[in-house]
Amino acid sequence: MSSLAPKRVLLAGLFHETHTFLEEVTDRSQFATRRGAELLDTAGDGSPMGGAVEIARERGWQLLPAMDLRATPTGIVERAVLDEFTQSLDETIAAALQDGPIDGVLLILHGAMVCQGCLDVEGEVVRHVRTRLGEQVPIAGVLDLHGNITPEFAAATQAFVAYRENPHADACEASRDGARLLDRLMRESLVARTLFAAPSIVWPPPGTGTAFEPMSLLEARARQFERDHPEFLCVNVFAGFAYADTPWTGVSFTLSTIGDEATAQAALDELCQLAWLHRTRGNVIGAPLGEVLDEIRRSSTGPIVVAEPSDNIGGGGPGDGTALLSAFIAAGFERAILALNDPHAVQVLAAHAPGDRVTLDLGGRGSRLSAGPVRLEVELIRTGPGLFRLEDPHSHLASMCGDQFDMGPCAVVRHGGVTVLLTSNKTAPFDLGQWRSQGIIPEEQFVIAVKAAVAHRKVYDPIASRHLTVETPGPCASDLRSFPFRHLRRPIYPLDGAL
Ligand SMILES: [Zn+2]
User: Fold this and answer.
1) Considering the domain boundaries, does residue 198 fall inside one?
2) How far is the CA of 271 from the centre of ligand 1 (A)?
3) Residues 222 and 334 occupy one common structural domain
4) What is the pLDDT of residues 12-32, one digit of tens each?
5) What is the CA(146)–ligand 1 centre distance, in A?
6) pLDDT of residue 394
7) Under 8 Å between Cβ of 254 and 238
8) Cβ proximity of 255 and 195 under 8 Å
9) If you measure from the C-alpha of residue 454 to the centroid of ligand 1, how many angstroms do you get, rounded to a whole number?
């Protein structure tokens, strides 16, 4: 085959951030599925898969699309999901090899997925591909900055690019960069390898924003390494995902290089030292609820955004914890809004008309770790469908779902000055279209509660008069010492006192 023939590239996606401390098992039905040519429909939708398809077209590749599976962060994933995914890869590879060689592999992954019987799903996937295609075919792609990367994953791959921003505004662009690197590896027949290093650190999600130290320092150093060393194809900073209990959970770095190993290793060592030096800055724990309520009472201008990381939907929280609902009502706040995922309440309210007063239990069923349901008399404001187009096509949400999101049937209810948006699908608060589509104008509120750690800040910071982070009980609590880790390597900061 001449070198001008189109490059033939296997394309697939598997995306899940797994919270292994949740009781629920994530089953196959919770994954949005695309098969074969359906993967190509994502072009232009702002998702990492869409970005990869765009570069493939630009570079004239012949894509060999297998399967794309994505789900919102939830509990441990049933094994059948991984088995179906690798089977799809096998079938696509077998069919493709009948028409000629496969020149490269492009994978759209998260990096913190855990299945029943497999603590390193991404490592398993790339090893699987490697066994089928041999040592020469480059494997590249994109990973979330919250990936828990393993030495085995790094050793089996050439050029994965991690998101460099949290909130993940650059997810699509990082994916394009991964595809561009693969194109270069194929065209120039370069031999690249990926090296790995991890300091003994695990940070809770609120400590992983890239606008703040320590992540801003690590990102800046990584980009400087890329500028100074043309032989470094990419230098990745992984903040890790603390609630996936695996041996390599936590902060790590990978470096893909076409140069010598010692230079690359020295750069990785420096990044590890820098993370260690600033480790306490990443252990961000919110203020107690009473303190946050006092801060709100002392304020006169809104909107005050109150982030509640313990029920962080983007991190696997159920999004139905009621601690702030009860507190806002007790405090008598006016123009306070919050969203709860409560399909049952939505169903009850669907039988009523706007203006009806209904007494029902709200929220509090998703986790035994958080506050339970709250019985409340509410006024029904409206009910209706929850599909909305993202106002910010580059939001963190777009990195997960593309340009629209379906909250499922919704209801808006009010009790005193507190308005509650009830959804039927967990909806990470990363786009203001969530509110506006339901007749609520976020800019006009005094207090907005969001079930998130950091990723909401891209859309909420521009409208917020202040931003507060509150620590409440819940499955994504920021004090990592409260979680029963079993697989994580020890000792590690901040779990072990001597560190
Ligand atoms: Zn992430």
Assistant:
1) yes
2) 20
3) no
4) 999 999 999 998 899 999 999
5) 4
6) 77
7) yes
8) yes
9) 10
Which two tokens mark 393? 């096509």
Buried b (16+ CB within 10 A) or exposed e, 292-301: bbeebeeeee
3-state SS track over 412-474? EEEECCEEEEEECCCCCCCCCHHHHCCCCCHHHCCEEEECCCCCCHHHHCCCCCEEEEEECCC
Cα(461) to ligand 1 centroid in Å equals 18
Q: Which helix (H) or strand (E) holds 345?
A: helix 343-350
Q: How many domains does the chain have?
A: 2
Chain center to CA of 465 = 26
Q: What is the pTM of this model?
A: 0.89
Helix axes 261-277, 215-228, angle to 10 degrees: 160
Q: Is 488 helix (H, G, I), strand (E, B) or coil?
A: coil
In this structure, are 325 and 228 located in the same domain? Answer: no
Whether the per-residue pLDDT at 395 is higher than 80: the answer is no
Whether residue 276 is found in the same domain as residue 337: no
Cα(108) to centroid(ligand 1), Å: 13
CA pair distance 32, 386, nearest whole angstrom: 17
Any bridge partners for residue 175, and if so which?
none
Q: How many A from CA of 121 to the centre of ligand 1?
A: 16
Q: How confident is the model at residue 499 (pLDDT cuts 50, 70, 90)?
A: low
Q: Would you state the structure tokens that stand for residue 360, as one six-digit string?
A: 């029902």
Q: Give the pLDDT confidence of 255-304 residue by residue, as tens digits.
A: 999 999 999 999 999 999 999 999 999 999 999 999 999 999 999 999 99
Asked whether residue 444 is domain-assigned, the answer is: yes
* Domain edge (last residue) among 257, 282, 307: 282
Query: Do both 438 and 294 map to the same domain?
Result: yes
Q: Are residues 215 and 345 in the same domain?
A: no
Residues 151 and 107 in one domain: yes
What residues pair up with 237 in beta bridges, in sequence order? Answer: 253
Residue 27: domain span: 8-282
In a domain, 487, yes or no: no
Whole-number Å distance, alpha carbon 238 to ligand 1 midpoint, is 9
CA atoms within 13 A on the CB side of 141: 28
- Judged on CB neighbours under 10 Å (0-12, 13-18, 19+), 182 is buried
* Residue whose structure tokens are 């002392």: 298
How far away, in angstroms, is 286 Cα from ligand 1 center? Answer: 19
Are 420 and 451 in contact, with CB atoms under 8 Å apart?
A: no
Q: How far is the CA of 111 from the centre of ligand 1 (A)?
A: 9
